[in-house]
Amino acid sequence: NNHGKISIRLAHQILDDAIQMNINTLDTATSYGDSQSLLGMYSGLSQFSIITKIPELELPIKSCNIIKYID
Fold first, then answer.
1. Residue 45 · residue 70 · CB < 8 Å
2. Where are the alpha helices (DSSP H) in 1-71?
């Protein structure tokens, strides 16, 4: 995106269009800014499968370190 951050309204319109085009998988990550929060505000989210990534965790991996990314 060469034009900066899009509005929530436009993002939701894009998601509506994706549903109409039978796109059913979304890829996101914490490093994509507030994309995960934006998706959480979308009423049609249940129509998608979501692939997400979390930052690399230090060893040993503890569940409390993972939960903060998926809560």
1. no
2. 8-20, 35-40, 63-70
